[in-house]
Amino acid sequence: MNNILQKVTTFLVVLVLPALVLYATVHFGNKRGTPEKIEYQNRADIDKKVDHSEFEILQQEFTRPQDLTAACLSCHNKRDDELMASAHWKWERETTLPNGRGTVTIGKKNLINNFCMAAEGNNGSCMRCHIGYGWEDKDFDFEDPTNIDCLVCHDNTNTYKKRKGGAGMPATAENATKEFPVPDYSYVAQNVGKPLKENCGFCHFHGGGGNNVKHGDLEEAMLNCNRYVDVHMAKEGQDMSCNDCHLTERHNITGRAYSVSAENNNRAYCETCHTDTPHNDRVIDMHNHKVACQTCHIPVYAKANPTVMYWDWSVAGQRDANGNPRTEYDVNHKYSYLSIKGRFVWDDHVKPEYFWFNGTADHYLYEDTISEIPVKINELMGDYSDPESKIWPVKVHRGKQAYDVVNKYLANMKVFAEGPGQGAFWEDLEFDTAIQLGMAYVGREYSGQYDFVETVAYWPLNHQVSPKEMTLQCTDCHTRSEEGRLANLTGFYLPGRDYAKGVDYTGFAIIIISLLGVIVHSIMRLMARPKH
Amino acid sequence: MEKIKIFSRFERFWHWTQMATVILLTLTGFEIHGNYSLFGFETSVRLHNAAAITFIILGVITIFWLIVTGQYKNFIPTREKFKEQIQYYTSGIFKGAAHPTKKSFGNKLNPLQRVIYLGLLILIFPVQTFTGLLYMYYHYPQNPIDANGLWFAVITHTFGAFLMVAFVIVHVYMTTTGHRLSTNIKAMISGYEEEPVEENKTENQPA
After folding, report:
1. Which structural domain, as residue segments, surrounds residue A18?
2. Mutation test of the interface with chain A: which of B30, B39, B54, B95, choosing the one with the most A Cβ atoms within 10 A?
3. What's the ipTM?
4. Which of the listed CATH numbers 3.40.50.360, 1.20.950.20, 3.90.1150.10, 3.40.50.1110 matches domain B2-204?
5. A427-460, pLDDT tens digit by residue?
6. Among A317, A443, B22, B176, fewest CB within 10 Å belongs to which?
């Protein structure tokens, strides 16, 4: 009896209880939390729209768009003050640069980029995306509120378009074409509302001279896409608009594009809706301390149409046998060479590059001399030891563009003019004249000697969020493979990727020595075994 | 042969539960370290974290038990028969010599075991626990103390893991050095060890 009891006890303490503990550990340990479900109602579905067609003032025939703006402001007074203080109007803002580089007034207007290089001096083409009417040159009146183009953002008919080459003016009777007719102002005015994707996209999809050239994660396909391309904007999904995330109060739109912004403020955050513990799972949520949501949730970008990864101006200007500009196409039928622009490399389904980023960025300014190659058009600040910094997915756009050899700075270039003979590169294919005119327009000295230098620009990714089934998995980063997403982001210990060679080699040596010792010892015991 | 009680019920439970936990920690730990794929990285992380908690709870209970029962005394090193024990493992064992230390409930460990196990208890376990907890909970390694990306903590943790594996190898082998190959393991299961009685002992003396 005693013996049986003893056996039962033994069975319990050496097998059943330890097995139970192990089972509980595995059972409770290996549970993944269920993500929080966000209930969200699109802003467009909440706010009741005012019926603008009932306002008499809008029932007139407008001949000048400026008159329409005056009509808008007669009810919406003081809104012009908000707009005229915005970067959408000024194309610059006062901002403090990191690295103690002081406070400067910078923006689209006066920053050099590595696409078409600079907006200033190319107003006809570039300022088409300005929210004003006809910023053709330095004489544009920034103080006149009727110069504000209300329609480009608030047209809900999708019929209002600014003419190509018109510096932001829509077509008039004199220059109307089939593609860009004179807008039906009365019809548009009676159908205004909150901005639609189409309104924002008109400019933000087409930066750099074509769909998805610049951003890589903002493009036409998102007007009508599936969940794979963008889980927020998908037609069959929530079908959100830009301003559902880019919350706006009094024409102050949240969100920062670090191609022009420098400060960590007024940003749009995933966390606003999703909280900073959206997975409801400790192991995954704690990544948010050091990893931006975007890093795992935007595994690839340019998912519907390709984006430009490389733009080499140095080979632009070639003419064919007949002396005409020529064009080459790549396998995806995207232009790979244009005489007016140079050589292009496009790519789609691009894996981002990853950097520490704390929400501040430095920028190349007109007066900066070139101190390193490639020249950084902008630089995302941050590193592992900075608590504000997170790992961020970035589109890196590389290029080769003109610089002044003597003054050692990047050059402005006049690329656009309405017609040949005015020294614009896109018309005349002459670098020297184009640079001279470009530099003169902004009052920078040009030595007369130019060459080309490699440049690099960093565009943090925020859009084209993938469905959760397609996010990055642990071993996309936690791997020793050279292909690991974070293989190049060193300077901190990443489990699964990093190890100290000395420690590992010593450790394995200790294990091998232990094994050998055990083997030798047991062999010796076997040999010495007394034979009976 | 006589049956001597060596291990209490709690000690046996402690031992086998700890064995299971340590094996789980080792298998998952080296997967996280990038040495192989077994459970999958995510599962390994979750199991490693869970096993760590189990290990700590078991440790706390055990420390309490060791203190209130006075059994901690088994781990206090002694010089007595230290040399003899080394001589036994390096030569006596090959000649069929008798164990220099006689086991009992109050003296379960020979002098070598005492040193090794004490090292395990006061060095490896606490260091592994401390560095592991740092990694689980110290998410801003610059503030307030700059831990340099926890580099030192993880390196120490890794080295501790290698030592642990080496310990397990030698430890498992040593179980075969009892009176019979299975004597020690049987003791850890049943709690009783079959020790040879005095007259057998003389038989085993070298001629």
Report:
1. 1-29
2. B54
3. 0.90
4. 1.20.950.20
5. 999 999 999 999 999 999 999 999 999 999 999 9
6. A443
